[in-house]
Write a structure and sequence with these properties.
Blueprint (H helix, E strand, L loop, with lengths): L2 H21 L1 H28 L3 H16 L17 H19 L11 H15 L6 H18 L2 H9 L9 H4 L8 H6 L6 H39 L3 H35 L9 H4 L41 H35 L1
């Protein structure tokens, strides 16, 4: 092939490619437009969902920080970067040790007979015992003794439980092999009594339902804190946890945090299943299901790793556990800092896809 034939061949290929691009431009733009509309709706809804779980004062403050940074990025504080000193591995360990100490005191507390106890306190203690049964590091013997003491109080409000406990042989769980039996001891809470077909005061069932509703929110709050701590530990391990000694320490801390997240997940699912099962019987409004949704494995993820890692920043989405209404977070500077970053990024993603729709519309006008 001579030089002239080579140039003619290349011109033919380029001309064919340009011709194909022109005749398929409509389909290509339609595909981009449909994707932009879909992503715009998804990220705008995600942004509004995140805003519902945050106070208006924080949103106004963060929006002002973004405006100042866009006007003068050299002098203003970058709202997309962390301004709080990250937690160290030592602080995470101290936090875990304090939680373990509180759990040990709670689990080893001797069972005492309280003469005057309200039904709310009685059921709340039962829920605490149920929570200890799901703990990954329970003290079986101490828990068994505490259950034995609590059941004697329970009979005062629910006499039928004396028969239920005798049939299930509760006292036999405190033997030498108590570790395997303690988690299986039935506590016979009001909803369980109803489920067994026995009579129980509806007020007690309503108290349990309301306490479990509050417990679901508490478990989500605990889970968020543990996920945030786990993310910091992973970053520390990636940056500084090299070698057998440092790697082993950080791995132990990660394992402890994973166990805590799993325990929160198990407790949340148990509480929510009971709420869903008895909500209609107690004539409860289904509005609570909007915030306390079904918790799937893919929903349990950190703030900074939310979404598909293989895709860009514009494709990420936060899990719903970070959207729901939460308690006052002003005293937790690390959580406020992380939420500010994710709120700013979520807002930027929503604006980015809105701008993409406008750009595609302009390109369509120019193409035709």
């Amino acid at each position: 092939m001579g030089p002239g034939s080579r140039r003619d061949t290349l011109d033919d290929h380029w001309g064919d490619w340009n011709w194909r691009k022109c005749i398929t431009l409509g389909d290509t733009m339609l595909k981009h437009a449909n994707r932009a509309i879909e992503m715009r709706e998804k990220h705008v809804l995600a942004y509004h969902g995140l805003c519902q779980g945050l106070s208006q004062n924080n949103q106004d403050l963060w929006r002002g920080m973004v405006a100042q940074w866009e006007q003068d990025p050299d002098r203003a504080i970058n709202p997309y970067e962390s301004s709080v000193r990250p937690m160290t591995l030592a602080s995470i360990k101290l936090q875990l040790l304090q939680e373990d100490a509180q759990m040990a005191v709670k689990g080893n507390q001797p069972a005492t007979m309280i003469k005057c106890i309200s039904p709310t306190s009685m059921i709340a203690q039962g829920l605490d015992l149920e929570e200890l049964q799901l703990a990954y590091d329970l003290n079986a013997l101490a828990l068994c003794k505490r259950i034995d003491g609590w059941t004697s109080l329970q009979v005062g409000y629910m006499p039928i439980t004396a028969l239920l406990h005798s049939e299930s042989n509760v006292q036999k769980g405190c033997g030498s092999n108590a570790s395997n039996k303690t988690t299986k001891i039935p506590l016979s809470l009001p909803t369980a009594v109803w489920e067994a077909g026995e009579e129980c005061d509806a007020r007690l069932v309503d108290i349990e339902w309301r306490l479990r509703h509050a417990a679901c929110s508490d478990e989500l709050e605990k889970m968020r804190k543990h996920l945030l701590s786990r993310n910091w530990v992973r970053n520390f391990k990636t940056s500084y946890g090299h070698g057998q000694r440092q790697g082993g320490r950080s791995a132990t801390t990660l394992e402890s945090l994973n166990n805590k997240v799993d325990a929160c997940t198990a407790r949340y699912r148990k509480h929510r299943d009971i709420l869903k099962a008895w909500g209609s019987a107690l004539k409860k409004n289904d509005a609570w299901m909007k915030d306390l949704r079904s918790l799937k494995e893919e929903d349990i993820r950190e703030l900074h790793t939310a979404g598909l890692e293989a895709l860009g920043e514009g494709e990420r989405q936060l899990s719903w556990i970070w959207h729901v209404q939460r308690a006052d977070i002003s005293d937790n500077k690390h959580l406020v800092d992380s939420l500010r970053i994710q709120w700013c990024k979520s807002r930027a993603r929503a604006l980015r896809w809105q701008e993409e729709c406008l750009l595609i519309q302009e390109e369509l006008c120019r193409s035709y």
